[in-house]
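re the bet — no i am not wrong, look at it urself. input seq straight from the record:
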Amino acid sequence: MSALTPGPTRRTVLTAAGTAGLLFATTGTAAADRRVRLTLPRPTGPHRIGTTSLHLIDHSRRDPWTSPSTPRELMVSLWYPTRNGGGAKLAPWLPPATMALYRQQTAQDLQTSLDNVDFPQTHARQNGPVDARRRRHPVVLFSPGFRTMRAFGTSLVEDLASHGYVVVTIDHTHEAEIVEFPGRRLELSRQPAKPTDDEYALALRVRRDDTRFVLDTLSARRSLPPGLSASLDLSRVGMFGHSLGGAAAAETMAQDPRILAGVNLDGSVIGPVAKTGLDRPFLLMASAGHGRDNDPTWADFWPRLRGWRRELLLRDSGHQTYTDLAPLAQQLIRRVPMRPEVTAALTNNIGTISANRAIPAQRAYLRAFFDLHLRHRDNHLFSGPSPRYPEIEFIP
């Protein structure tokens, strides 16, 4: 598999699929005395947003990663427009027990204390009231990269919700690095250090089935908070994902006609869909050095896309530019002393493009895609290169 194919990682700072083991080094006492507050970019839409988490159990399936096998359990988050905060607090980027373990593991990897680092809050109110005054919202599903937690898509997910979408993010239990269930129960990744092609294929099938179960649950209007069920327009469903999540978006679309449009953010295409293709709109977004010219799975998949299709490239980006790692790592690079080789390793993963440019471009094209194919609103961003986003290259 290529370097851009979804791959495993060991525990790392701001872990996302494909990152190498990174070691930060502090010098002197300045870093320990100064608080480092990490932030995520603000959503750009007109709606305030809320979020809520759901614990789902699929009794029709056995978890393939456990022995003895147990029913498949998932944690998902819904992000949605809300009328006001209702006094609710901002949701944390990671839930409490996950953050405690994540901080501990990361400090071990970094060989330094992270006591002076404040990880970000989201911009969504925890369990904020649903805005019941407005019409139903299109639904978009999100699947993260291999071994990556659903929180790493927050920068993109929040923005879609602020523009009137309900976005559902999925943690794929025992593949994701950490999944926190009610009662602060943690389930950790059970994936091998070096997965085989067959193990990747199994992970893809599990993700496909996870996603279809989540969509079934939404369709049955089960387990949803008051007001949220009535706000879902399940006749307009899309899906996007990063890395293996992008492959999962394509594979799930191929198996489930309810998903009308999909986006693959820099993931190689594997599974049966690589041969069968798709007859519905699909967008491929690549990092620098990736695309049909050097990923044979994209080259083979492209002619099998029989509906609307586009390939875009984000200049000067890395594989992790499509995750929250981009803004958070760049903030750490600026504010935490580290060895030159560590900075180089981080830059290799997130690219040299500023997150202040990369994230607005990603958000704009992702929203324009779903607006076009779920809302039938064309802002003509896909008509050709835009001077507003010179970082985006159209691949013919």
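see?? The chain has one domain: 30-376+390-394. told u. also Confidence is low (pLDDT under 50) at residues 1-32. so pay up
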